[in-house]
């Protein structure tokens, strides 16, 4: 008789930027899953560790992380040297994990940890190494932001040449060895889901209900645009090929226009006056060239950061007990 298989060990990674008010509730929701539970399809699983990655936000999240690590034995604080952003912070937590599977959750209470069970069932049924949340309701943001989010993912689909970008979601289940490998080799500025797409096998989705966030979103318009631009720049070289194709098309158009003028000169002996249109064309083409050169420069910048060894993230010791805290402790004593 074969021995009963061990439960699937889940490592939960939570990047923390402004979690002072929301983290206690999230941990209270995760706590029941730290004992073995059975999924709807009969698979056994257990959350063995929860990584709270401190990304140096503007609130007092560090204090809350300390308190939660004392309250729950399975909470593992991860301290970054400075603010790196959501995706690098998530990768730092992945690199620190040891579970069979990695679950990534936002700190804001928008996602229900109960949906993890359904994610695991889908992964095992479809032999998928990555499972994204497929929201069953509209995200609790403004209509403009939701439209912009869908549009940006469609643009990324065109650049990547697939439909996977439409599945991207920060609530995801990743096979542990896949997540840790991506965290080990991903370069500076990489978009996490693009990096996962480079190595993941089958990618699936599972239904999840989005809840109203317990606080306002930490993403301003500027940060959302930067987020989208990083997706574009790390999606591969398809954007550069688009620049090349556009340049070829403009050059062919110029040849055709020149031939048209030549034929008209031969047939009628006249050339149309068009200095205004000529200047417009020059300005448009010059603007396109400068724009495309800017795109190429951005790609070069990403490559330079990687070549120079700029770290994606840097994990340090707890600043509350390290050398930086000694002066404060002497003042308090």
Write a structural description.
This protein has 333 residues and is of the alpha/beta class. The protein has a domain at 8-233: Spore Coat Polysaccharide Biosynthesis Protein SpsA, Chain A. Helices cover 48% and strands 15% of the residues. The chain has helices spanning 23-30, 61-71, 86-96, 116-126, 143-160, 176-185, 192-199, 221-233, 238-268, 275-307, 326-332; strands at 8-16, 37-38, 44-54, 75-80, 101-104, 130-135, 172-175, 203-208, 315-316. Strands 1, 2, 3, 4, 5, 6, 7, 8 and 9 form a nine-stranded mixed β-sheet that branches. It is elongated and about 90 Å long.
Q: Report the average pLDDT across residues.
A: 78
Report the biggest beta sheet as strand number plus sense, adding barrel if it closes. 9 strands, mixed
Based on the structure given, which CATH architecture of the domain at 8-233 is correct?
Alpha-Beta Complex
| End-to-end separation | 63 Å
Quaternary structure type: single chain
- Please identify which CATH superfamily of the domain at 8-233 we are dealing with: Spore Coat Polysaccharide Biosynthesis Protein SpsA, Chain A
How is the CATH topology of the domain at 8-233 named? Spore Coat Polysaccharide Biosynthesis Protein SpsA, Chain A
* Contiguous uncertain segments of 5+ residues: none
Helicity range: 40-55%
What is Rg?
A: 25 Å
| Net shape | elongated
Strands, count: 9
């Amino acid at each position: 008789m074969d021995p009963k298989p061990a439960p699937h060990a889940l490592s939960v990674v939570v990047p923390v930027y402004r979690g002072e008010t929301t983290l206690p509730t999230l941990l209270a929701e995760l706590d029941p899953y730290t004992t073995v539970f059975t999924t709807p399809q009969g698979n056994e699983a257990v959350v063995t560790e929860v990584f709270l990655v401190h990304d140096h936000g503007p609130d007092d999240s560090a204090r809350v992380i300390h308190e939660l690590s004392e309250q729950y034995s399975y909470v593992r604080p991860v301290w970054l040297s400075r603010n790196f952003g959501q995706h690098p912070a998530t990768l730092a937590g992945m690199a620190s994990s040891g579970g069979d599977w990695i679950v990534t959750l936002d700190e804001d209470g928008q996602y229900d940890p109960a949906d993890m069970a359904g994610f695991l069932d889908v992964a095992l049924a479809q032999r998928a190494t990555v499972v994204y949340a497929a929201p069953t309701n509209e995200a609790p943001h403004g209509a403009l932001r939701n439209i912009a989010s869908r549009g940006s993912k469609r643009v990324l689909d065109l650049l990547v040449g697939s439909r996977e970008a439409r599945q991207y979601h920060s609530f995801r289940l990743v096979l542990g060895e896949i997540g840790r490998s991506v965290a080990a080799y991903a370069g500076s500025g990489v978009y996490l889901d693009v990096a996962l797409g480079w190595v993941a096998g089958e990618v699936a989705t599972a239904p999840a209900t989005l809840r109203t966030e317990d606080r306002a979103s930490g993403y301003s318009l500027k940060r959302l645009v930067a987020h989208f631009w990083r997706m574009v720049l790390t999606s591969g070289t398809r954007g550069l090929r688009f620049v090349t194709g556009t340049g070829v098309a403009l050059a062919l158009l110029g040849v055709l226009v020149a031939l048209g003028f030549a034929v008209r000169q031969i047939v009628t002996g006249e050339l149309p006056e068009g200095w205004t249109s000529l200047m417009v064309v020059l300005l448009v083409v010059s603007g396109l060239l400068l724009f495309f050169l800017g795109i190429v420069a951005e790609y070069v910048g990403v490559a330079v950061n990687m070549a120079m060894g700029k770290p994606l993230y840097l994990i340090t010791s707890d600043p509350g007990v390290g050398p930086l805290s000694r002066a404060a402790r002497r003042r308090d004593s």
